[in-house]
Amino acid sequence: MALVEMRGLKVRFRQHDGWVEAVRDSNLQVEPGESLGIVGESGSGKSVTCMALMRLLPSTAQVEAESLRIDGVDMLAADRRTLSRLRGSTAAMIFQDPMSAFDPVFTIGQQIVETIRTHRRASKAEAMAEAEKLLARVEIKNPRDVLSYYPHQLSGGMLQRAMIALALSCRPKVLIADEPTTALDVTVQAQILQLIKKLQAEFGMALIMITHDLGVIAETVDRVAVMYGGRVLETGSVEDIFDRPQHDYTKSLLASLRAGENRTEQPEQTSDEAPALELRGLSKIYPVRRRKGLARQTSDFYAVRRVDLVLPRNKIIGLVGESGSGKSTTGMMAMRLLEPSSGRVLVNGVDITELDPLALKVHRKHMQVVFQDSYSALNPMMTLTQIITEPLDIHRTMPAAQQKQLAVQWLERVGLDRSFANRYPHELSGGQRQRVAIARALILEPSVLVADEPTSALDVSVKAQVIALLKSLQEQMGLSMLFISHDLSVVRSFTDSVVVMLGGRIVEQGPTASIFANPRHPYTRSLLDAAPVTSPHLRRERTFLSAAEIASAVPRFVLADLAAPAEASDIPQLVTIAPGHMVEAVVPA
């Protein structure tokens, strides 16, 4: 008998103007020890399907099914006491946002202990000892300390590990993971996926992995169900889905996953014009105050350390690295939305670092930014027309009537209907809001655009649409773009060259094809190794380098090996090893 059985599942939600069908006649089953991946874009019904299975939907939902069972229990007929016993002990769930899943007023240890004691007979001391073992099992290095931490004191990756420990505390038969790596950077994502696979094998659990990322599916599961519009369009083994997809929607998802795989290096074109953007020795230092006894000590923290970067005209540079590497800080300093501690920023050959606010306002027409979180970047009290025309108001470039006309033209240009003109941001999806943010940034026709993680919160098909839109507009307008991202698949398909940052400094930069084909710095290799695979046939056990291991593996070159003059030094420095390709290395005398 199947561990999870779902036949003819229908879910609809009551709205003011009627009912919305979220899931339509879905059939799925999971055998003991099996792993199933449910993939599809936002709104396809993936999460609703599993929330209906666990009976966690709100009262506005109406759930019907021919059969909806977990371990033989009829979930539709089960009473509250049966559901409480089943959740945690038979089926457990890892949520997408662990910060909202944990109670902020209790420690991690208290919450794991409560779960253990709810489902198993154990004293508080026994439960706390078990909680410490669970945290150690999910590879948290200091489990005893973490037991006393509150959720806000942990990083995203640590919090997700604690969430997995909580889910495993009652040894469930099936684990449901709902987008467990969406908000994590590439190396932490790889670590979490590898951990989930390891624990599944160790505990003998079944696994249901919900995701919009086919790369995650290729890494983790045995079977795949592809959902769209509330329906299961295609099911099969992971090999069949990736090698022999039948449905056009599945084929389009796979095409977006593999974009840029066959990219070749383009010949560099020289120009006598000044670069669109140039950063010279750019640094950002934050004073850090620590208490030592009765005294306070102040030290300097380098968020960005002497960054030199040249963005040629009509080119796209990808800025990549893990969270905390200094990518966004560099991008914000390039726009002078954050004041640099030292260094210079040149836009179209003009040094904007020392300009006063009035003079800087004139140059802001030539430099615009698209932020990561489009919801907080758009004023909720303004219509889309008002949002898009706001830069025109600030710079007083044309009369109000012409502004409205131009705003409608830009709505259509970014793929939205002119009927959207009087809508508000909350009435749009994430992809639509990001299109409005792009329209607002480009309405002044700038020469430089900084895009800070503009697709990180979007699902795979919407992400592909936004990237295609940016690429099209870049070619039409001759834009120069600094594209900040931790998504290496997007960087590979979209950019002309790549700059890799670690600890606030650049450790490697070069043409995109060269970086992906022949990475020379150990940190770059570890980033590329952590990226999700594009086929289940490429699965492998990964090793993750510590900071000390990366430092010890920094390349060493003799002067004769270098393509450009460099100074001999035992301190790592950026050296040119091929035309346009630089890497941080030691050049001993």
Q: Which tags fit this structure?
A:
single chain, 589 residues, alpha/beta, six-stranded mixed β-sheet, 23 strands, globular
Estimate percent helicity: 25-40%
Report the β-strand fraction as a percent range. Answer: 25-35%
Briefly note the structural class of the backbone.
alpha/beta
Biggest pleated-sheet summary: 8 strands, mixed
Mean of the pLDDT scores?
88
- Across the major sheet, the strand order is 17-18-19-14-20-21-23-22
Categorize the overall geometry.
globular
Radius of gyration: 26 Å
Counting H and I runs of at least 4 residues, what is the number of helices? Answer: 22
Q: Kindly, what is the distance between the CA atoms of the first and last residues, rounded to a whole number of angstroms? A: 70 Å
Residue stretches low in confidence (pLDDT < 50, at least 5 long) are none
Tally of DSSP β-strands = 23
Task: Describe the protein in words.
The chain is an alpha/beta fold. Helix content is 36%, strand content 27%. The chain contains 22 helices and 23 strands. The strands form 4 sheets. It has an 8-stranded mixed sheet, with helices on both faces. A 6-stranded mixed sheet has the order 7-8-9-3-10-11, with helices on both faces. A hairpin with a 2-residue loop joins β15 (342-347) and β16. α15 (384-395) crosses α16 (400-413) and α16 crosses α17 (430-442).
